[in-house]
Amino acid sequence: MSALLEVSGISKSFDGFKAINNLSFSINAVELRAVIGPNGAGKTTFMDIVTGKTRPDAGEVLWGDGSKSLLKMNEAQIAREGIGRKFQRPTVFEDQSVADNLIMALKADRSPFAVLRWRPTAESGARVAELAAEVGLADQLPRLAGELSHGQKQWLEIGMLLAQEPRLLLVDEPAAGMTLAEREQTTTLLCRLAETRAVVVVEHDMDFVRRLNCRVTVLHQGSVLAEGSLDHVTRNPDVIDVYLGR
Amino acid sequence: MTRLRLIACALALLLPSSLLANPALDAVIAGNLDQIEQPSRRTVEPLVAQIAATGPEGLALLQAWADRNLGLADGRAVIVDGDDVTDAVTGAPVTATPQMLRPNSGVRGVIEQALVAGALTDPDPRRRAAALDSLARGGDAEQLTALRAALDDPDPTLAARKARMERLLTIQHDPDSAARVAAIEQMAGDVGLDFRGVLNPLLATQPLVAPEPPAGANVARELTPGSDALPREAALAQLVRQGLLQPPLSRADQRAALAANITDGAVGGVPVATLSDPAARDRAYEALEAAGAVPPAATETEAQAALEANRFYDIHVEPDAAVTEAAKAAQIRAQVRLGAMRGIDLGLDALSLASIYFLAAIGLAVTFGVMRVINMAHGEFIMMGAYTAYTVQTVIADRTLSLVVALPLAFAVTALAGVVLYRLVIRHLAHRPLETLLATFGVSIALQQLAKNIFGTQARPLTAPAWLEGSITINDVIGISSIRVAIFVLALLFLALFLFIMKRTRLGLEVRAVTQNPGMAASMGINPDRIAMMTFGLGSGIAGIAGVAIGLFAQVTSEIGQQYIVQSFMTVVVGGVGNIWGTLAGATLIGGLSKVIESFNPGNTLAAQTFMILFIIIFIQFRPRGIIPQKGRAAEV
Amino acid sequence: MTRTPFILRNPSVLIVLAGLAVFTVAVTLLSQAYGTGAVPTSMVKVLGKTLCLALAAVAMDLVWGYLGILSLGQMAFFALGGYMIGQWLMYARTEGIVAAQLAQGPIPATAQELQDAVTNQIFGVVGASELPLVWSFAHSLTLQLILVLAVPGLLALVFGWLAFRSRVNGVYLSILTQAMTLALALWLFQNDSGFRGNNGLSGLQNLPGLDHVDQATLSVWFLWASAAALALFYALAAWLVSGKFGSVVRAIRDDETRVRFLGYPVEGFKLVVFTLAAMITAVAGALYYPQAGIINPAEMMPIASIYLAVWVAIGGRGRLYGAVIGAVVVSLLSSWFTGGRAPSIHLPGYVVNWVDWWQVALGLSFVLVTLYAPKGIAGVFDLFSRRGDRA
């Protein structure tokens, strides 16, 4: 099975600091992957590069069956290719209703004039209701997103991601600030999502990663230190060095 | 000219013992008393020459005449020197009250010309310098000879001036072509106005139309009609001027001729109503011409034939080809050097403009770097500084002292205003840069109007101390006014002061910390609010200083800040944020570029500014973060 | 997600349109041309101009209140619209006058003579003897009307494309728009710009071919036109910001990066709104200057655009009716206070003369509004409806 995303030999430095150093990474079309690493390992920069926010100094990022290069595309084009990103802090449009937030995220033609012509249909209404129900916001649709609780915002953002129907989902520290029950819910959701698409979870909470029960990539100083099952990588002496220090 | 030379020698020899009677002079005066009393510029010259030829008494008389110290008493010329009145011929004291002569400036010019030759060897160096000045306004061949005889001079400066003047006069008046060429070649590359002034008439041309190359004329070039140098209309006009072509008929003349010949609603058989068509008008005119009702006009064929039969030349006024060749070569060299010097001069201009922008922008850059807010009232802080200096000047009369007081006071006043603005407005709008921009704009219009209410709408002068007036002149091309030099020094001073504060003090450290990462700085115990307030005060204070500087060369009005504010914004944007070197680079780029663009199209500063701004808009496309971008990940957010 | 008619979902639009209609009818009935004459013609013109300014404020609100770009160059588009229509007004009228003069002559004038005379009449003051290239279409009302939209639209498109693609935003973008305006104004100030330098275009209050209609009547016609334009574009703007498009635009204002990650071409949206707003502003300008009678480059100095922002901010940005209220209230108050008719305040020892102190008061009140009433006057309406209508 060919890889959905193939990252090869990318490097990126900020004023001499090598945030990413000759990193290679690939993920299949249907897979759940956790990326872990200590602070400054390059996790966020890695996501920035894949989503087009940052251009690498060297290397190649290939996408999909046709092995398209993502480096020539901007953020919006990459998002339209089917890469969704969940930020660490919930970023929803607080000034707008939950329904408006979801409608914006619905998979549809994104060009300005198409958006201008777009009209709500029974179908779109049903889809919004369905998504809202899925993330537990069914009775919050008319409320302003800004009035939601922190956890609800997280869920709304996940709902918006689902609405985008991405083929690859990048999730940045989803468990941060969540209660135990919410974590449980999130784990279940992520696992279910990974049944039909690729999901990359960036996390440094080992406990949460263990729950995901998936293949793990360990980043350190901008490159891959180890890869395999969680048990496999936690036995790796390099990983122990990095995580426990000496 | 030998005569004049003799006079010069005689003057040198006889001056100390000039109390002898001079019968020749006596005769000349007696014979020309009318002319002396009522001289005319046109006719006085032979008389002056005659008097000059009579020797030192004659020269002394001429000098007194020119200085309006000559009078007439009982039919005798007398020289008045304060209370002493002496006979011009005998030198004997005279008691009668003389009737003073008041020759007009034309006459005095003629007299002074005659005196120049003598004055060149005068023992008084000031007289010699004055004689050279007079020569510089125009000399002739005789004076060249006199000058050559008087080249030695004890004063090295005057000796050099004499030598230079001798070269210049040689070029203009030496009868020997080779000597003129040699003089030109010697001076080639010189950029003095005097030399260029001598070269220009040598290269002057006048147009000439002739069937074949004119014999003996010094042809500068031949022109082709219809080329850029000689458009067809100009060539035709030349032919008409020289009588080689009938004047062609202008549309207006044609119209007038047709209007004068309307009969029964038609002209030459062509109905008037159709005459809005130029072709119909031509037909009507031809018909009139055929009938003999109007004079024939040059037809297109005639004009073409005349053009083909004649050739068009530019002829040098100066007949000597060798001289014009040399002059041309010298002029090219002069122009090359002139270009280089203009470049240097431009650089100096640009530097002073850049210093002003730097002073005006530095405060803006600091506040923008630390707080990410644009203070639209910054221009009004500049104005406040200027008005502070003006107010100080009304209290302290001594210009230097008032400036010394005004600089720190302007800083204090505007820094205080900045702190107040920060405490009352900006602090409450943290992280809302656009709101800050608008709120400070509100402050800006209020302050502007307030200044109008207090100081009135008319411009208030801010006078620089005497030692700042005038300029430093290196040669005819390169010069810079002292005020601008002072502003440059001031800018350097503030750059140094600023660097010192930023790199060597606790405040600077904290400011840099807040600029780079406010969150982290706050968590390390730095109070960002206090830092922001202090930088705001500092930035505003510098604006006040800039205001004093700008006020020194521009009139102080309530709009003085507005004239610099947009350029200051540009400086910050182009330079890059959060870095003093960026501001410096921005100011240099904007100052330099404005001057360069202006030099392409002198006199049209509006166009220069337009292009300048367009350039900046395009520049931002390629360097959105400025010349020296802020570094680090913080800048990415 | 039931489909309610647009107007019903946005009652404020209905209220504004109704208010506008009542206002227009009232002014008409009080005008000298069609009514009692209680409102003098000069006042009708002031009111008509105010409607145009309100329209410009609506466009400003689209760009700033909804899209989040504080454009300090809107009045450049306004003035450009005025210049484009002014070209035709001035050319056609001068042509009429000159043709009448030439017709007095013994023989009819040629096309060239006519044009030379027109050129001399219009451009003699700046010493030009040939009709500038930019006046090539001035003879045709249709072409100049197209240019009213096309020139500002194209300028906005090019400038916006350059600025947005290099991701200049926030304060930087504001400064850049200000620079653009200043550049344009300075260029127009030149005598050889082709627009008569600082003389500007004048005599615009006379409509060519309508010499028999007096100014009292014309002023009412222009009031109608201004009101119609305001109504039309208000409704268009309200429709634009009410649907999904409006959602995306407001989302861009609040978090541009996030919108990009949703896959929306942010630059495209910005360009559409910016260009559209420029064209609306140009229409407002094209209606304003025939009522003002004269236009010159000073009208587009950056300060004018900042005042526009002030009106929108005081009225309440992010709501279209706020922009209208702000423009109407502040511009009318400004002309009242600076017109010398406002009564002075006699304090002990000092007389507050409003001509001198209005600017100070305006500036300070603007600071206060920004600080304490960021929603502006329109914020008052929130007291009546909890969430405020967002159209």
Automatic annotation (TrEMBL), chain A:
| Protein's name in the database | Urea ABC transporter ATP-binding protein UrtD
Organism for this UniProt entry: Paracoccus hibiscisoli
Domain ABC transporter per the UniProt entry, residue ranges:
5-246
| The keyword Amino-acid biosynthesis is annotated on this UniProt entry | no
| InterPro entries linked to this entry | AAA+_ATPase, ABC_AA/LPS_Transport, ABC_transporter-like_ATP-bd, ABC_transptr_urea_ATP-bd_UrtD, BCA_ABC_TP_C, P-loop_NTPase
Task: Quote the gene name from the UniProt entry.
Answer: urtD
Q: Does the keyword Transport apply?
A: yes
| Entry keyword set | ATP-binding, Nucleotide-binding, Transport
Single GO cellular component term: plasma membrane
GO MF annotations, alphabetized: ATP binding; ATP hydrolysis activity
Automatic annotation (TrEMBL), chain C:
KW Ribosomal protein (keyword) present:
no
Residues passing through the membrane, by range:
12-34, 46-67, 74-91, 141-164, 171-189, 221-241, 262-288, 294-313, 320-337, 357-384
Instruction: Keywords in alphabetical order, please.
Output: Cell membrane, Membrane, Transmembrane, Transmembrane helix
| Any one of the GO CC terms | plasma membrane
What membrane topology is given? Multi-pass membrane protein
Instruction: Name the principal localization, coarsely classed.
Output: membrane
Keyword Cell membrane listed? The answer is yes
What GO molecular function annotation could you give as one example from this UniProt entry?
branched-chain amino acid transmembrane transporter activity
Q: Where in the cell is it found?
A: Cell membrane
Q: Which domain of life is it from?
A: Bacteria
Write the protein's name: Urea ABC transporter permease subunit UrtC
* Protein's organism: Paracoccus hibiscisoli
The organism's taxonomy opens as: Bacteria, Pseudomonadati, Pseudomonadota, Alphaproteobacteria, Rhodobacterales
